[in-house]
């Protein structure tokens, strides 16, 4: 809706704690490490920090598999460290958003341990089915024996047979991440209890992991086998997802002034209106449409070029589709995605394309989410060999592919894995040109990108023309220019093959955004429909000769300009 609130005016910063800063030199980032970098975040100017999971967990999916929702992973620190982090943020007028991962738990969570043993009241806390182990060969993993044909999002069947209980349990992700049974009111009550426990510790909101997956279709019917993820039509935006979230809103969220962002793979603008529209239970949603633009239609790992037409069409649809209805959560990369420079920009024009994409992110209608390292233009990683990857999704994919007859060795799929692996986003934050990028004094848990000698915080802060200083200026600009936050969005030059341009308008103030998405030098001509009396260049990533106005100019590779129009 169009109401003004703090979270619409906020720039969010996502921290992946394992890779942010290691305070005790064991090779793993931790909470005291983040505390030491609070002034860094304050200097950058961000308003809200979203922390990916720091709870006790066996780390099968690096924290998205939670063993205890009310405790901090030992490697990351203690509750006291967490409180110091929260207070340090609040003292600096920053807010803290925690990750809520409640579609599934770890298989080491007490609830699951009890559910396997059919201990009440936990017997129905998860989704158990008998299947037909007698079918086919009698092997419980014979596909005919499984309760249905659903795939896990990490590949392979979504069912694992539990010897102890003699039944299969559903897991939309790894076998170590069993799905909770949201139909059971006691499960929902326990989730609300966890939420209140954190909200009462004065957090400022939740990012909710795959929250549109919590409701599975009645009877768990077989899915269309031609879908990219078989079964997904039966668990993405399932029949009761919105209803459960409404209940959560009524019972918990409405009592607190917090922000909620649902991570929602597979939602359309129409779905988003239900979740985050006028009467929607949540504030914002992460959609994935722009993340699909370079993925093959049948195989997400079969990467192809994305096109500016599709990119512009997608963003325009979300900008106009939520206008007056809801609020966009804007991102170009996160801990699950390749680095934006390597994907939507150009490593050969690293600084230019990083700053151009940053300009885009901060001048759309919605709240920008900056992912750690983005503000210094970190890029994908030239992983030396298969053995350097650690992410479960990547490892499962490699395993699966190596079983195929047409794949001889890792290098046959090396390009796709190097481009698409989530590990690209998870290598240590590059603080300086010291060994291990100044992240740790020990062997880090995941390779450091060798470009750290050039791309690092210390050198970026020393260089006024760096990506870092551009982010800082851009964030300041957004704080001072309500038109960039609240203004209407209108695309200009809708068919231009190289330029993405748009106008934002708030009452009598306009902003003109002109972005060259490639390395050519196209000419920009302001459409005659855009009238103005005066124009001021608000920000640009190249020097601009002062008298040059917004009506027409030649762009340089990845150039970005924002003009204020009166
Ligand atoms: O990600 C959800 C999700 O859809 C991922 O499968 C994502 O699309 C994929 O990794 C892209 O390569 C969330 C978390 O952000 C992710 O880190 C977790 O692994 C996942 O949920 C399970 O909790």
TrEMBL record:
GO molecular function: alpha-amylase activity
Top-level lineage group: Archaea
SUPFAM superfamilies per record: (Trans)glycosidases (SSF51445), Glycosyl hydrolase domain (SSF51011)
Residue ranges annotated for the Glycosyl hydrolase family 13 catalytic domain, each copy included: 14-426
Gene3D superfamilies for this protein: Glycosidases, Golgi alpha-mannosidase II, Oligo-1,6-glucosidase, Domain 2
InterPro entries documented for this protein: GH, GH13_cat_dom, Glyco_hydro_b, O16G_dom_2
Keywords in alphabetical order: Glycosidase, Hydrolase
Annotated GO biological process: oligosaccharide catabolic process
Protein family: Belongs to the glycosyl hydrolase 13 family.
NCBIfam families: PRK10933.1
Protein name as catalogued: Alpha-glucosidase
Organism the protein comes from: Halorarum salinum
Lineage of origin: Archaea, Methanobacteriati, Methanobacteriota, Stenosarchaea group, Halobacteria
């Amino acid at each position: 809706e169009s109401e003004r609130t703090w979270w619409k005016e906020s720039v969010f910063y996502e921290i992946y704690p394992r890779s942010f800063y290691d305070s005790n030199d064991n090779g793993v980032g931790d909470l005291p490490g983040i505390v030491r970098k609070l002034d860094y975040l304050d200097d950058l100017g961000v308003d809200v920090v979203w922390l990916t999971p720091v709870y006790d967990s066996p780390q099968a999916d690096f924290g998205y598999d939670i063993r205890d929702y009310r405790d901090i992973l030992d490697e990351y620190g203690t509750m006291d460290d967490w409180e110091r982090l929260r207070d340090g943020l609040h003292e600096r007028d920053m807010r803290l958003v925690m990750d809520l991962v409640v579609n599934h738990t770890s298989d080491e969570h007490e609830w699951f341990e009890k559910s396997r043993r059919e201990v009440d009241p936990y017997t129905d806390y998860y989704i158990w089915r008998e299947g037909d182990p007698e079918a086919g060969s009698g092997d419980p993993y014979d596909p005919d024996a499984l309760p249905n044909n659903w795939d896990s999002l990490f590949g392979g069947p979504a069912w694992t047979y539990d010897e102890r209980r003699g039944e299969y349990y559903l897991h939309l992700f790894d076998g170590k991440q069993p799905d909770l049974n949201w139909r059971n009111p006691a499960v929902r009550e326990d989730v609300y209890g966890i939420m209140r426990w954190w909200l009462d510790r004065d957090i400022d909101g939740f990012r909710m992991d795959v929250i549109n997956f919590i409701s599975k279709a009645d009877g768990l019917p077989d899915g269309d086998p031609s879908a990219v993820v078989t079964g997904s039509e039966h668990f993405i935006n399932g029949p009761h997802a919105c209803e459960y979230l409404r209940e959560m809103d009524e019972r918990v969220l409405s009592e607190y002034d917090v922000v909620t962002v649902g991570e929602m793979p597979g939602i359309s603008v129409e779905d988003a209106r239900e979740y985050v529209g006028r009467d929607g239970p949540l504030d914002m949603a992460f959609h994935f449409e722009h993340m699909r633009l370079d993925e093959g239609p049948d195989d997400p790992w079969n990467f192809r070029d994305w096109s500016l037409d599709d990119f512009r069409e997608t963003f325009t649809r979300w900008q106009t589709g939520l206008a007056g209805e809801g609020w966009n959560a804007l991102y170009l990369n996160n801990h699950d995605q390749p680095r934006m420079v390597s994907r939507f920009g150009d490593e050969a024009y690293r600084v230019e394309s990083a700053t151009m994409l940053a300009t885009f992110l901060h001048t759309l209608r919605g709240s920008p989410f900056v992912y750690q390292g983005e503000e210094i233009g970190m890029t994908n990683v030239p992983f030396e060999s298969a053995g350097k990857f650690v992410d479960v999704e990547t490892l499962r994919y490699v395993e699966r592919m190596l079983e195929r007859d047409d794949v001889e060795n890792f290098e046959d799929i090396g390009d796709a894995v190097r481009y698409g692996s989530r590990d690209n986003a998870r290598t240590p934050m590059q603080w300086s040109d010291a060994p291990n990028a100044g992240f740790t004094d020990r062997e880090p848990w995941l390779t450091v990108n060798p470009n750290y000698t050039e791309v690092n915080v210390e050198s970026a802060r020393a260089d006024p023309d760096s990506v870092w200083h551009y982010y800082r200026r851009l964030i300041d600009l957004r704080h001072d220019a309500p038109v960039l936050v609240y203004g209407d969005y209108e695309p200009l030059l809708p068919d231009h093959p190289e330029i993405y341009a748009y106008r934002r308008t708030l009452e009598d103030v306009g902003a003109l955004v002109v972005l060259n998405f490639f390395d050519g030098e196209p000419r920009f001509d302001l459409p005659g429909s855009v009238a103005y009396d005066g124009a001021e260049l608000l920000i640009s990533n190249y020097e601009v000769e002062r008298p040059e106005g917004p009506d027409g100019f030649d762009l340089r590779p990845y150039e970005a300009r924002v003009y204020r129009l009166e």
